[in-house]
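Bug: token stream looks shifted between consecutive jobs. Job 1:
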Amino acid sequence: MGKLIIDMKKSIAYESRVFQHKMNAPVAQLDRVPDYESVGRRFESCRARHHVRSGLQRICCDPFYCRRGISMEICFTLVYTDVSISQEEKTMSNNTVELKHDYADINGVRIHYVSHGSGKLVLFLHGFPSFWYMWKEQLMEFGKDYHAVAMDMRGYNLSSKPEGIEHYQMKYLMDDVRAMADYLGYQKFILVAHDWGGAVAWPFASRYSEYLEKLIIINAPHPNIFAHLLATNKEQQKASQYILFFQSPDAENIISGNSYAMLFKVIVTPEMQFTEHDRKMYLEAWSQPGAITGSLNYYRAAVLTPPDIKNNPDGKGQAAEAFTQVMVQVPTLVIWGEKDTALTIHNLTGIEEYVPDLTIKKIPEGSHWVVNETPQLVSSMIREFIRQT
């Protein structure tokens, strides 16, 4: 890679004419540093932050999403700052450089995904209100000996956000996963999913079992167990009342207020190392046009909803009784943070009736966000399960 020298007196010299960006586009031949009035602006001006940072020098490259609207096949934003970069930021920057960002036009939508490594496919599905970034530690870990891929699911971050609640029905969400595997060239893969990603992964494993070698679910209820709890369990009914709020027409305005303070309160726990860089990444993802509505549409299109216990304390929830059985025949690992306040521990009872080849690993001190609270522990559990014959 070319060497970029940035002098604090604002003298700029470019000593190489080749920069290979991270999104599978052709190598760009540059005679000089483009001047887009961007010198001195922060690197956040490009959405996807495909950047290389070292000391005071920063380059950002994104061929699709330049906020400045520069009409070029590839846009480069050169930025410098007199603010020192912490060692933590340098480590994160080095990690980011090793990850590959790309897009797949599948199933009528454009899906942004991030990958690392080669070999068997391990596909990661996030939930609400996350995006590919929640799996950054797992991408680095499993990219050592697998082709690790994390999607931005439809409606989130840089992926397409089709208008209309009907586009977020489960059949389309499952088909996105199948089409992604086909696009990447895999007939068999390992699926790892959290929260809403798990809500998609359970029926996917039932309908498309021929695609899966193994299934790993993290704090995502099996739909039949969840349906039963919504119909009979007061504790889970009470814990699920937030779903009714997410389905309401006021949800977008309330959630986005005060710089998404509500969402940060939801996803950040004292047990995790949540940096300022992490905060910026999430803030940028949530700020993408249509992203909050797209993510909320998962709830609005959901078959299962809790009863409104305030107005109907004896209700059983929408479609709870008549939900189709979801049988999963592939080897399955369920990892569960026991301090999950949205999904009670009762969701683990009876799963074996629907998943004969089942392993359950509990993390007593883990919350719903156990993936980001104890990433090394979660990764070790996944790796151990994958290695089992």
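Job 2, same session, no restart:
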Amino acid sequence: MQANFYFERMEICEVNRARKIDLRTLGVVVMVRKKRERNMLVRQILLAVFAIAGSQLTAHAELTSAALSNYNTAVNNNDDTEIVRTARILVDEAISDPQNPNATIAAYEASLKLCERGHCDDASDGADFVVGQPDTASHPVMRDRQLLKAYVDFKVKSNGSSRSSLKDALEPVKTANPSVLSLRAFIQLANEYYSRADWGDAFRTSSNAVEHLATVKSSVPDAYFIARETAATSYLLHQRGPDAQEDLIRLNAELEQLRSRYEAEGVDIPDWLERTYWRSEAWVGVAQALFWSNDTRGSLSEYRAGKSNNRPLSEKQIDEIRAEYPLAESDEPSSEAEDGQLPFCEGELKQTKAIRYPSSAAFNGMVGSVILRLKFDEKGNVTEPEVLAAVPIAGFEEELIESVSEWRWQKSDDEDKACRLNRENVIMPVTFSIR
């Protein structure tokens, strides 16, 4: 006699009533919904797909199978050690019983869980097993199984072959509904190409990720905009042209627009948005500096010499782009007077210690941009300089912090009205380039 088999599948989707899951290893928050699929199989089990590390979503079972029951208990308790131990057992038992109608899904879920928990080596046998099982119309479909295998192989060892295989496995997924696995795979592959300075593949992979996540942009804005940032910056480093500059300005303008909406609603701006916004500000500075750099490839000097058609966007063009992303109006005071404070004193910033170009960066001909947040005390001295962003790599900000810490704001001699020298949240962008 057959028993009913119930399976709850969870996909990233656009819904009003959705449940939040904290993807701590990705730094993203996704909204998910449940889709119930019912099949008649030998035994009754209940599995929750994509129970992410650190979340409270679990798989539940109504089987007599000890392996499945122990695995579900471990996931329910969010016990890392037990999850890994029971997942290994579940994979082994599924492989030893390939005719069992639950073998494929059990091996798939346990292998996915193992790799999520940093044990992709132990997931290899299960990933190999599921791609060898007969294809069916139910989850996991062959496309998802092949993606799991390619992802596991890539995590076990990133080389030219595994990266190429994962890129191929992601191609048919690009237009499918996003899942946590596809999101992980896209982002981590793009980051791998990026870390290897393979700007072309980084751009193509992250652009595919943007397309993949476009339909769930409001549900996973952090993942979406991180993919946008990777695509825009890798394009800039790959091409160095006005199109790349425009992509970065549009990214920056849209992020600023999103920040303004949080501020207008009186809601705290999420950390991911603050970080991504300030990085985009710094990258806009890098894009501009590249047109003035001594490295003439795609630069303004090359354009002026008649060797290139690349020309930086004009201020008018930049303003027109930004006008497409109007900022939300806020009820916050628009001036210090409205806030009941004395105005900030007119004057100038005394740079008592000059900023030096880092010698190692100069040796490499590197262009960089740093965004600082400064505070001034009652005497006008700079206090607590904070680095909001430093791109494309760290290194520029160390010398900058040391210099800026000795600066002060000096009041103008002709300033005769009541004013103050103390001020917070002063943003200062600094761009490093060789001309």
